[in-house]
## 1
Amino acid sequence: MKGLFVRLPAALDHTLTARCRQDGRTKVGVITELVEEYLVHQPPAEDPLDAAQAYGIDLSLLTSNLRKSPTERLRDHAAGQAFVTKLRKAGKKRDQL
Amino acid sequence: MTNFEAMLKRLTDGEIQFVLIGGLAAVVHGSAYVTNDLDLCYERSVPNLKKLAALLKTLKATLRNAPTDLPFQFDERAFALGMNFTFDTTLGAMDLIGEVAGLGTYPQVIKHAEPFDLYGLHINTLSVAGLIKAKEASHRPKDIAHLTELRALQSMKR
């Protein structure tokens, strides 16, 4: 474990000390938790398009969707939904054989 | 399979106050994911609940995952028993959400909505920023892919 010197404003330090005493916790424990929360739940800001690509999202599909009107997007979605339903039915039928 | 067009038409014909949210709202904004249910944030005034209850009756709605033989009459009083309800109807799956995570109830949600012309109907649809806020608040692992896609769409639309 590495050492970290933290200088808190006196009033904040006083309140934190009182609260830790009340909760039966240590100041180091509270600060460690805050640092973990920051690192885990607030990931570094990266370009959303880079993040999507890294995740495996097909950006060309999104670009193509954005060229369509909202109703066209819904109609294409309905066609996709029908296809998925057909596939599921076929899968079920095969499982029953 | 859910007939979204027919459902939206029945909702607007019935003059029901709602905001389109969830997967289909994401599709309206350009999402490539396929969804199978219609998610709506509904307004909880008594007149609106009466209209919704009447529509549910005509669509022979049953509570999803409830025993099929459960005698259950859904009326405006039944809405007082909860906030979020999932139904199977003759037109497909419909989820009625009274309170959207990260946003709140209808009066707050409508502030994050944009009017869209869908199938020639005027439909208030949750904005991309609103969808992102709601998904971030849900903390569901299954939403990570959707969130990543929505953030990309938001960036592409700028």
Note: The helical segments of chain A are 10-23, 27-41, 48-55, 59-67, 70-96.
## 2
Amino acid sequence: MSFTDLPFLILLAIVYVLWLFCRQHHRLCATMLLTSSLVFYGYHQKWLLGLLLIYCVVDWAAACWIHRRSMPGLALAIGVVFNLVVLAYWKYTPLVLQTLAGFDLDVPVPAGDWAIPFGISFYAFTGIAYLVDVYRGITPAELSFWRYTLSAVFFPHLVAGPILRPEDFLTKLRPETMPTHTEEPFEAMLLLARGYFKKTVLADRLAIAIDPFFAHVAGPTTEGVWALPFVYLYAFQIYFDFSGYTDIARGLGLMFGYRWPENFNLPYLAASVQDFWRRWHMTLSLFLKDYLYVPLGGSRHGWWRTNLNLMLTMLLGGLWHGASWSFLLWGGLHGSMLVGHRCWQRMPLYVWLREQGGWVRWAWQSFCVLLTFHGVCLAWCFFRLTVLSQSLTCVSKWFVFDPEKLLVGGAADGSLWLLLAAYGVGVGLVRAWRAALPRPRMDWSPWTQGVAWGACAALLMLAVVLSPGGEKPPFIYFQF
Amino acid sequence: MLSWTASRCRKCRFAMGCVTALAVLFALAEAYLQFFPPRDLHPYLGEHSPLVGIYRPDRAFGVAYRSFDVFAADNARGLKSWLPLEAPPDNRPLWAMFGSSFVHMRGMLADTARQSVRDHAIFNLGRNEPVPVRMAQIQLLLEHGLRPERIFFQIMPLDFAGLAEQPLATYHVTARGALTYRPNVPDNVAGNWIQRSRLALTAWCRTGLQKGDPFVSRSRLTVAVDDGLMRDARHLFGELARVTGEHQTPVTVILIPNYEQIWQKAPCGFQDALTPMLRELGLDVFDPREAFMRHPERTGLFLPDKHFSADGNRVLLTELLTHERVVQAATSKNIQARPTSRSTSPSKQKDQANAKDGAP
């Protein structure tokens, strides 16, 4: 099920009403949430439930073993290896076999309909995070299998995150901590409204406008077409699609009383790639840092080793996204930009510019934001087009300037640019307005509260009304 | 008393804030939609639609081409080797085929016939168009000199889905030549509002209720044809019979069974409903479903996209040729009996149908 499917909305309404009735009864409530999560995941493909439950059994058993302190290292290794091997089997088998076939080896190449269980990367990572935290003693092992399973499969975060640590969710499922009321109803409503608006009105419209270009990027129909506007639009599409998903997930979490970490913080205003990764898919960045970069040695072994660790982390982060060498290249590009930024930080000019004030500083910051955005856009070409030759063609078309084809097709749709600009201005105004309002929200005047609730309701209604008709594009991160 | 008044005042202010926010955002959305209506709204905006086209309103088919020239320009590829129509380069008798992708797509009926039927030239435009437009094409082609020995007009349940959703009565051809539809709105204040506000119309379109018949189920078309659709079908085919009759060109309507009917044994209510009506109008009907259903290798008849495979098209053509031989024989008999009559009268069609029913 997807958050934009009608069956999901029906399921959500039923689950929420049931939750309101049984929230005081811990066991009943947990059973109901677990059942609804299994319905959510197995709605289209029931066999996926078997895979999901095997993951839960192994991770729960490994954590219990670690808890007993009898060869905990072995238990951790078994658990982590299981998570990674199963993930690798589903995600990388076609890539490996196709690569081997490319070397004229006689291997069976899987058919084009090889289906990766959706969300497998997310629940595998959640499992690894749990096992490592139990091993490190950061969190105690959960002895109740059903409670652990609920924490792993709870439908709002199951398919595309945010990637949760045990302290974000698992520890709040215990009888004494399980919430019995909706946390911040206004914020929940705002997140849901914003998330649906981002997905249906912005991301889906952008997808419809730019998909034909990317589908024929190397074909004669896009000969001479300037690629950069399409890449810009894709950058916004993926941002609105993924951050919209996260907003909905967090809003749903709040509906049931759970507050989960933010995943995005205006990433395209980052002034460096390092800054970008602090603002984009923040839970993944933190995961990679804590469970990959730091165990590799982090920044503890000198400048060169730090660069190597950064590069390795980004390469593996890229490969995590999908079974294609272009994802590896995407990670490699980000790794290179991070290393490049570290080199730049050592230069005297960088230090001098950083110390400037006034318009010099402002101009320099603006230049950095623009440069970072274009660096990220360059990497998106390898993310969007998973055939390497197409990615390279797309990049080469950044520098094609045929005056008659500068803005054609979806990129020439003025309504899209206007919508993006209006959204940007709207976000800016709302942020300024909220900054001027008193905290906490209880102190808002009734009129202000009414405006806030009315704006949320309007946004939610407009998300339905202004969505493009016809078939809805799926969430991009569902494929990972 | 004071606290009750204060509480009421707070609620009023809250409600006013709520309404203000709703009004402001809806006004912004309305302004945006006035300038940039979404694409799926374009066919329902009447004269305000940004769509442009090459059509004009037509009493017979609901829509017709503005002129032969715009039709020829629009179908330049299909017509290229047939112009001028009065003196085609190929001297063989002509069979003209009209229909959906089952006729036009590469390797489908027209291609298969072109390869197998050597004594006839096969004419087809190579493009799928809505049923009324196909009929308008026939009228225009006949009026401008095309002289086929026979016209084959292929239809299947899916071809009528568009007409079922948007009956002829909802057709509106704009001054800019685009085919649009009158939205189905309630006959009250709400309907008035929907027609005035783009936001309301967009919301109405999101529900799907703007369609002429919003409750049409495409899968149900194989089961039965409802009265409204039957009326439109009778009107359209009646006009087709009139137009082709004026040009003394016989028509065979090919009722192609779809994948579900052959493979999943879905009902054939569509064919059963149309066949008597078409025969009553004087049109010859070819319904090859039996040949497909009794075929020993039914899996091989379809491509994965549910079009006919090469085998499926061979079966279709073989059956069609057999049918044509029977019709020719019956027609010659009738000509011998009544040598002056060339039009296809209903009684003659009934004879042909009887001849067909008795055919092997």
Note: The mean pLDDT of chain A is 86.
## 3
Amino acid sequence: MPVHCEGFKTKIMATAYDAVYHGILRNLLSETKEESSIMEDEIEVLKRKLQVSKTVNVLNVSSMSRVDEDELTRILKALDLNTRFLPCYSHPDDFGNVQDAALNVSICATHDDYFVEHIKDIFGLPFILKTIPIGIKHTNIWIRDIAKFFGIEEAAEKFIESETRQLEEAIAPFKKILKGKKVFLAGGEIRVVTTAELLQSLGMEVTGMKGYHFDKFGNELLEELPGNDDIPVFPIFGQTINYLGYQGVFEFARRIARLLRNPSFNENISENTRLPYHKEWYKDDPFKYIDQSEALIG
Amino acid sequence: MSKFVDRPRYLCALGGAIGTLNALPGVIPILHAAAGCGGNISNALNGGGGYSGSSYCGGQALPSSNVYENEIVFGGEARLEEQIENTLKVIDGELYFVVTGCMVEMIGDDTASVVKRFNRSNKTVLSSDTGGFKGNSYKGYDLVLETLFRDYVEKSDEKEPGTVNLFGIVPVQDVFWKGNLNELKRIISKLGLKVNTFFGSNETLDNLKNAAKASLNIVVSDTFGSDAAKVFEEVHNVPYINAPLPIGAKATSEFVLVIGQQR
């Protein structure tokens, strides 16, 4: 499968997602909508239709760990939905029946807008492309959108209520440690904005954010947040860390609380490391070396 | 058999060059390449090199000209000059070294002439054409050493009979390079020799700068480092030997005997 992704083509790293999806769309999809054998067992056909009507494709491009997948599976299973993860770690043949689902669900518009819109054009498969299930608020939004599509809002509300209650109880001790602490965030657009919301819900103060890029999808989320500027360090994505969903909130809160209880590793590192930057550079205007005239080219 | 390569065994020439420069104290590598080269190499060096760390100025903090379509079509020399200027202002180093990626060599950027424009600044800026397609990590090591030996090592007519340089163990590529160099240095020191390894513990760039005072170069390999040793001989008139790889007691004894015969 050819993927056209010359490094010097663009400054926007996220374009690579479109390039890979383009390769998948051109090469791995199967145009035939349904196999029709002459003598098909009616019950089998109905069973299959039922299965498809309860299957959700969840797109897991690079921002999801295996533990995250488990959490999203658990959430959707509670709503009586089957989950299929694409495209990462799936077999090329899995794309041949991508249309055998009721819905495509993205966890990040930066990744998936190109793919889900094309699949809708080709197969008429609807999609949800709004937010990433990070933090209680956005996990709830994510679940409600899916529940609305399937008309199972009532079950979803019950589930949300029970999960949220248990979670609030579990993170209460961490909230005491985290309250009022200041945070600066850097990362992918959708992730930093939703993580900011999560941090605020834990009682922390978000002083600034740096995204790899910004587009219309980020703007919608950004409008809901107040802004400021400055410092600390926790990797906001790791292949071994659970970050998404309700369990992700707990895991995240637990880890940053531990980091704040004992920051001596970071302190020792900073005391014993010589950084390569000139002292004067720290005092400079942070935008000094950004050539605005070139900023929009590429 | 695994169906994919999870950890690369070696990188391209550019990767080997960056690994080598990162292992030298106080050196600032400047990449003249597309944005992906630096990031991918940093990950591959770490993952493939036993999590060697990013060193003083490396990893994701590596200065890079990040050339894009505009530079590929119209040439990237102006971008490189700007990048060197800004790096000198922002990053504090003892030696700045420009290394190049495939794409800027394919379009014919004259890196050496851009670097020459910085001759009169009070900082030393060197360069080497290390386009990835020239070879693998080992080639990158040799290319960097050739430039360092030719342009950084100071000429010296006076040779110290008891001083030798030892190289041929490729940093990061040999994940135990530091320990290996330290141990060989310890052994050879027992023969009463003073040893420069450039990449070993407690060495500074002065070990490299004054390396022309040595009376012999010991290349601990039949291949890697030999090209650089030839340049050293040509420029500084210091002969070299390819010593056997000292792994195990027997081979190490042979190694010591070979070195001893040179005295």
Note: The mean pLDDT of chain B is 93.
## 4
Amino acid sequence: MVDAVSLAPEFALILVTATVLGYIVRRIGQPVLIGHIATGLVLGPVVLGVVTQTELIEVMAELGLGFLLFLIGLQMRIEEIRDILGPIVNLTILGTIAQTALALAVAWVLGFGPTETLIIGLASVFGATPVIVKVLTDNDQFDTLPARIDIGALVLQNIYLVVLLTVLGAESLSSPLEIALSIGTVLVLMAVIGVFSYVSARYVLPAFVASIADNREALFVVAIAWAFLFIAGSERLDLSLEMGAFIAGISLAQVPQSIELSEWISPITDFFMLVFFASIGLQLAPEHLLAYWREALVASVVLMVANFLVVLVLIYREGFSMETSFVGSLNMVQVSEFSLVLGALAVAQGFIEPGILGYLSLVAIVTMSLSTPLLNANYDLYRRAEPYLSKLEPTDRRDADIDIHRNHAVVVGHDELTWWALPMLAKRFDRIVVVDRNPANIDEHEQADYSFIYGDAKHGEIRKAAAIERAAFVLSSSVQTEINEIILEDAPDSAMVFVEADTPENAAILYDAGADYVILGDALAGERTNEYLKLYLYDREFFTDIVRPRLARIRERAGGAHGKHGGVGDE
Amino acid sequence: MSDLITAIALIFGGAALLLVVADRFDLPAIPIYILAGVIVGPFVVETQTLALELAQWGIVFLAFVFGVRIEPGRLDAVARDSYPIALVQLVVVGALGYAIGLGLGFGPLDAFYFAVAAALSSSLVGLELMERDVRRNFINARLAESIHFVQDVIAVVLLLLLGAAAFTPEAIQTQLAYGTLVLFGGVFVRRYLFSVFRQLSGGVEELLLLTSLSTLMGFVALAELLGVSIVVGAFAAGLAVASDFTENAEMLNGIDSLTTFFAAIFFVSLGTLVAVPTTTVIALAVVLFVLTVVITPLATIVMTLREGYGTRTASQVGFDLDQVSELALIIAIEAFVLGRIAPELFEAIVLAGGATMISSSFTHRHHDRLWRALIDRDRFRSIKTRDKHASHVREGIADHVILVGFGEQGRTTAGEETEAVGDACADFGIELAVIDNDPEAIALAETQYDNYVFGDILDPRTWEQANHESARLVVSTIADREISEAVLDLTTDIDTMLTAADSDAALSLLERGAFYVNVPDVLAAEQLAEYIEGSLSEADYCDALREQNISELQNRIT
């Protein structure tokens, strides 16, 4: 029993410090993640020494990892990278091997012992998702080919890292036999969980999720319960909880609601991961952090350059243009955030001393902060290097076109209004994307010949997936003014945007926000009813003749004509 | 550590299973969490301390979100009516609860907790149940929302007072002073600082979410420092965070998702604190149940009628308040943690909370049957109403048109609203009678027409007033199935022109005998077809359309 209603002060301190540092790193153009790592260093023994690791912080950090892996699994939608899957698989396998070899070599040259060298080598995989995603999104490069290659490679690399995490979690790594044995056990257990998750993803989850899909809260709680079912299960089997969370995520990733779900899970993940990154710093005494600072600096610079060249060659090898290879490789010149996860685990397992974690932290901070300006300038740097590099590139080499939405029509919400409008838009636009959050319509959408995204347009992920920022026409039948305002903000100036409003006041707000036309359903209906009323009062029979065709159309739509498109009004 | 993970797995696993079942019956989530807690309780005893620590976060986030969601001025229009209703209901049920509490042999403090649990109702459950009406801005929803708001504010004040170290005048004065300080701090930050944060963050949403959480932490720490309940601190933090959705969408999403997560843990943990109930606990819970489910609605209905609203509106509002408040549960758990409440009373409050939240969804679903039973008995005829929402219909009116609903669509249908449409009935020398249950709408009708009836659309007496037997046509502009069906039942021999939300509903109304049914979306789609065609083929078409619509809009905005 707690003695009074109160909250952990150490956590409050972490949160506030992380916020302040967040503003500072933001000012100097660095990703917020750097601020989180710095938070631990500032509050921990390295600088102020005011916060020590408590049980609560450990639990929260652990939960953060669980949620992170769940989220990563949830975002593993294989079909999104299917068109470049082959090259990405090659890139990931060869890249990971090359990166590990490089890191091993550097660690060995720098004079680390055999176990340290091994851990450092394994932990120094390159490419940090939070940094890359953040910077590229800010620079509007998220849908470029290099970004797609990078994200795809990181997704696959995560699978490897999760396995690695599980292996490192094993009792001891003293002999090759034990390592092999533990890898074997891990693989077998993974297979067991994997089969369970595959079977449920295939036969159970979609129907189950669909049955509660209109209940946001139930869906959310079920998703979390699903994650913890696997987490607790893996723990029972002595696997890492990360493994369980990851597999739980993958099995949920294949339902149409997964983008929506990841929007709900990611704030919780950020919340707990903040504690995780801060807790790394809390573990480090000053002497640990700086134990190998020279080595860390040397390794950072050497690895950044070497990795850049290796990945450049590997991407180019897969037949992409020099520009794509250059930018794609440059984006990935920072150590993965998993480096810290693996390092922290290795310390906990007693494989390495905290000094090595200090080394890994320094490498992470240095490579992440150095890489941010490089990412911001990625295409500029290519322009400068182009005169030299283009000599190496045969003139006929061109990237395959990737499939992205552009100059398309986006329809938000699916009701009778948009149902009648769709066939007309189909005549005008090659491509239509429908965003709808009503689970009852999923079947209808999946059979239709437009692209369909399940989710709420108020979520950034969903709007990004619909590529509203590149649309030529947007029609929103949502009457939520705030959603329409966001849509208007996202849509390019050149796009024509039609939105719906429920009151004249809101309609005025939307016109102010730049809407081209605001549909005021009640007013339109009122005008028409007024007309009908006059017709009726003029002559009842005449009115009956006039409305007959419209009644027929209502019957057609209601009488099982869902999914087929009728013509739009001819009067 | 792994104990805690097992506990969380159990908490969410239990909640998930029950929620899936509850979803079939459209039950609200909170009582389901509590029930899940009661069931998994025995399995998580060892980790209760840690789970309770996480549950604290749930309390804090609930209060925080309550503060964030407050939109000053939104419900001002009904405040004059709803505040007296809320206050009288609180005083009546509170006093009765207190007396019963003393009668049951509790000391003054326990009796007070008992009264609080009986008097306050849950805005989370009540407004979730009424969500459809809230969205359509119906009068009953606006009244209920405003009453819930008053109750929630009073709950925060009670949390502040009951958190006092001792119940002496000095201690309470200090509490009040510090509490006011904290709340003003929240308003100050919203006014002057939050926009600065926004600017500094450069629009990075992650940073804004972090800022709002830090604000929460800061205010909670401040509250702790001053010895004020952390719930008050969290509420003040909510006031401090600007809730402009367009600018802070991701931040609000983040707050929402964290709240759902921690609130689930909180409510389940609350359930785990309930052991197998003893007879005393059950008896107490039953008394509380009756007070909440019978007395609160009755008091509210009487008061709402006195304010001059129709019986259906009054009964809808009354039966939206028939559950124990989540804030009353928070008040109870704070008292429990401080050892200030009798454990049996605490358990009874939690049980009654869960039970009333479930029963509330039943009274909501079968509301119209309840309401009919109430008006059939005619108990409420004798209540004197403040006769401010008058009706007026010319004696002997006949061959007239009855217009049901005087909202946007209704006003346009009648005409005169804009220059584009003329007054439909006047052109033919036919009289029009307007029916609406919203005082604001009737006040508007009064300025334009001679005949208007303020009353419930489902109530036959409203129709008698409008002399519907001799009407020529009934036009309903309300796209609500219940109302449309009632109109059909009441007007068997008269032509009806109804409104339906979609073609399915329209078809079923046509089959039940409607003369004609409008579907606004279909009408809008026809118009839209023309506009889209035009905009995509002609360069200036769209600009002209926009100009024209904006100028028409000026006329509509009153």
Note: Chain A touches chain B through 119 residues (CB under 8 Å).
